[in-house]
């Protein structure tokens, strides 16, 4: 069965990346629920709520950036970023073996050469790895996410996190955490998600 919420203007929106995105979406549709990657209620809105939503981070990531994606899970947003921004190199960090296996399968199927997969908790990389950009989606509230992300961010680097409608509340609740974790500034952006009529929220937090 084919999923039916794909954007009709997908090829125009994503160009050369479209075939890879479409293959990725089909893989999630076919195997995501069975493999515990996505809930059954999310399948009918796989494109709009998940895949297209992840493209909202793209405009906040510099050209040819090295990115570290925390808690990659099904590959959201890491796989979407690597597909739609082939100029970047994306490090996917995931601790669960079955999800790591999935990510390897997806990378092979999509022939992605700009992805490195780490089977690890993000805390395991503290002190051993750093990048100018860290991405995250549905990992934790900012007051927990920031202490995870800042130790693997280079000075002047950015955490780019996809958030829901309560993003502003999360920012307020994390004020003291920002001070303790060398956060220079925090911006909240409301982004129109291309290919949909929806908006999402992106929090960008820069490290001193």
Description of the molecule:
- There is one protein chain.
- With 208 residues, the chain is of the alpha/beta class.
- The protein is built from 8 helices and 7 strands; from the N terminus they run H-H-H-E-H-E-H-E-E-H-E-H-H-E-E.
- It has helices at residues 10-14, 18-31, 46-54, 78-84, 97-110, 142-149, 167-173, 175-180, and strands at residues 66-70, 89-94, 115-119, 131-137, 153-163, 183-192, 199-207.
- The protein has a 7-stranded mixed β-sheet, sandwiched between helices.
- Helix 4 (78-84) links the parallel strand 1 (66-70) and strand 2 (89-94).
- The radius of gyration is 16 Å and the shape is globular.
- It starts with 9 loop residues before the first helix and ends with a strand.
- The model has no long low-confidence stretch (mean pLDDT 94).
Order of helices and strands: HHHEHEHEEHEHHEE
* Overall morphology: globular
Number of strands: 7
Mean pLDDT: 94
For this entry, give a set of tags.
208 residues; globular; 25% strand; seven-stranded mixed beta sheet; alpha/beta
Give me a quick take on this structure:
Helix content is 34%, strand content 25%. It is built from eight helices and seven strands.
Secondary structure layout plus pairing:
Layout: H1 10-14, H2 18-31, H3 46-54, E1 66-70, H4 78-84, E2 89-94, H5 97-110, E3 115-119, E4 131-137, H6 142-149, E5 153-163, H7 167-173, H8 175-180, E6 183-192, E7 199-207
Parallel strand pairs: 1-2, 1-4, 2-3, 4-5
Antiparallel strand pairs: 5-7, 6-7
